[in-house]
Write a structure and sequence with these properties.
single chain; 203 residues; alpha/beta; Spore Coat Polysaccharide Biosynthesis Protein SpsA, Chain A; 7-stranded mixed β-sheet; 6 helices; 33% helix; 18% strand
Length: 203
């Protein structure tokens, strides 16, 4: 009998606190800090909207400090602090923390993907019933989603974070370890001005 249930599935959401001048800095160089903050708040609201219906445990991991009262002060969301020297270490630590708490599936998303939908995350969670790893590739070469059904630290090491090689390098690791995997549909993150139009966002 399969012992995978919604209660032992964890969704990690990496977020920053939406502060003027500290979010979407690449966008801000072109459209200004205030509009960049507005875009980030839109992305946060979208991420919350699509994750509320998910039948799993949800964990908000803040980059800087846990905010007591904010958008994520909502039933079903547990707040935690990211720690680690780089993005890979922070993701690795979050995965290990949750697998150590006996979760059977752990998945992470960010708050940069305006086209991400509840059904895509649900499909990714379901894929881990018979695959070791699931990846949601982004058009920029990174990924918007990563999940696994056990802790695999190699997924988070020796990657050129914030480059167009991340998905390929992650797949190379998966193949090297002879893990099975599934890919969800390719989506656009919102990092550059061109991404706004691709995602139908007006500023």
């Amino acid at each position: 009998m399969n012992d995978i249930t919604p209660l032992n599935t964890a969704l990690v959401i990496f977020v920053r606190h939406p502060e003027l001048g500290k979010v979407k800095t690449r966008l801000a160089k072109v459209i200004g800090d205030e509009k960049a903050l507005s875009v980030y708040n839109l992305l946060l609201s979208h991420t919350r909207q699509i994750t509320i219906p998910l039948n799993c445990r949800k964990f908000i991991y803040y980059t800087d400090q846990v905010i007591e009262h904010d958008l994520w002060t909502f039933p079903g969301y547990t707040k935690r602090q990211q720690f680690g020297e780089d993005l890979g270490a922070r993701m690795s630590n979050a995965f290990k923390e949750l697998f150590d708490q006996d979760f059977k599936r752990v998945m992470i998303i960010g708050s940069d993907c305006y086209k991400l939908q509840t059904t895509i995350v649900e499909q990714a969670i379901a894929a881990l019933n018979d695959k070791d790893v699931v990846i949601g590739p982004a058009f920029d070469g990174g990924y918007y989603l990563l999940g696994s059904n056990r802790y695999v630290p190699e997924l988070f090491t020796d990657k050129a974070w914030s480059t167009d090689e991340v998905t390929n390098q992650t797949l190379a690791t998966v193949n090297q370890l002879e893990l099975t995997y599934s890919l969800t549909e390719r989506l656009h993150d919102v990092d550059e001005v061109a991404d706004l139009e691709l995602n139908g966002i007006r500023v």
